[in-house]
Amino acid sequence: MKLEQRLTIALPSGERSKHYALRLLRRAGLEIPDFQGSRSLSHEFGNLRILEVKDPDVPAYVDLGVADCGIVGKDWILESGRDVYEPIDLGGEPYRLSLIGIQNSGSRIERVASKYARSARKMLNERGIPADVIQLSGKLELAALTGLVDAIVDVVQTGRTLKENNLHELEVFAQLSYRLIVNRAALKLKSSTLRELIHRLQHLETETGIEK
Amino acid sequence: MRLIPDGTRFTLPPEWEWRETLRSKLEGVLGAWGYEAVQTPSLEVYDPAHPQADKSFKLVDRDGTVLALRGEYTTAISSLVRANFPEGPFPLRLRYAGQLWTRARDAELGRQREFTQVGAELLGVSTPLADSEVVTLALECLQAVGFSSVAVELGHPGFVRAVLMETKLEPEGIEKLRALIHRKNAPELAMELDNHNVTGKTRASVMALIDLYGSQDVLLEAEQYALNDAAKLALEELVAVAEQLPQKGVLFDVGIARRLDYYSGMIFQAYTPDFGQPLVGGGRYDGAPIASLPACGFALGLERIMTALGGLEPIKPPQAVADSRSAKKLRAKGWRVENAWTLEPSELEAYAKKRGIAYLVTGDQVLNLQTRASQNLGTFLENL
User: Fold this and answer.
1) Which domains does chain A carry?
2) Complex ipTM tops 0.90
């Protein structure tokens, strides 16, 4: 795919998400040489510029127009609350955002920990669960096991870690996958380029089925 | 303690100068089109029905009434007109420029919590000519402040509203669909339509909304999805405005679905290449809830425009430091001159050098601080 206009893509820097996003972009026909060895955070290949940013920050770069589009998990799109376009589902290993608690504890959920404080608050509110939400940055299982909180809101893929720690998925809040997100102005101003990219990424889906 | 609140700024001389220059250029254009300036109070009586109600800064008045800091101009201008020009004469053309405050917003690139807006309202008439006047005027404003390449995008929320009506869903379901269309979220929109068993032509039309953007051709393409009279009317209105505008640089998005209840007619935004945020927003809002008379307007955010233009020219220092009598004579010739605050020439010279001021005038002597050349004030003034 030849780029007629300059295009800046925000790429998630998480190992798994970066690998997946790059593979999709390459399969869609973007020529992206290997830059694994480079310590630079921004890579230019002709008209294409790739910014490596932390997964949670991809929506901000796209919303504020520093990047024209980006690839990121739906969890971070929800959490960001950013006003962006999200025209296609890019699949990936399916995962979900869930409310997780100690099995058979029977206690009321009054305090909840999450990396996704905003989403957690919103989804607890929607379900009428009046719990306080504490923002933590990782190892949430420990917060539940030590009694720091009564439950956690986190992403679940296989559920193996949960089982090992005697934790239980109480409710699935949302099914998640990778998404392409696009800046509002860019979709209109660079519409031929972005439409082509969207079309090609969509085509990948139908050609091989969403990779699971 | 923070020195100033989040999302506010100290405005320093170069920025002030630039902002005021832009403001007066914009007001110059609006004035030339017959738009007269008004101002509304910064303090407003808090109204829960106000479109910005939950985003505004609130204060309590001495009798306990809740007040809000002005968060947008359109509603305020509409009250101003109701109170002062109930009988017109219409059309009424008004412009405004001033500060706005938004509490519920993170301060980031191109987004401040205290910001300056310049805008215009064309009130009392509702015609395609009036709509296109407002769009053209907004574009001329952007040109006047130095944007050479601008794209404007037109839409009509009435179209989305009408197409969604065909799903026969409850308001809650409609709102969910609207939010998905607003994000052009095709996969989840398809799922949501499946969940509600929306099928056939209605489903196809709702799905089509996501992709109906681009050049004027999309208006033709949209015709097949106009399933009811309201949709046909919205499309006709949009076509009628489009016919008044040049084809070049005008884009359309029939699937625009922001705030369906606010704008009643055409809405538009303008963009410039490589700046990811709209420079101008506007549209037509006839009747309830915010205006009792037809009106169409737009606003531009000065700070955002300055960010998009980029680069700030350093402000030029005054041309001279002089004793008060000489200063008066130089000012009469149009110079910017500071008064000497001491009789000590060496102090004045050191200060002038630090500020980059070129001339020092003491008594009748004009000293050029770069060349060290000295001349008599009388001859110097004659040669100016």
Assistant:
1) 7-93+177-208 (3.40.190.10), 95-175 (3.40.190.10)
2) no
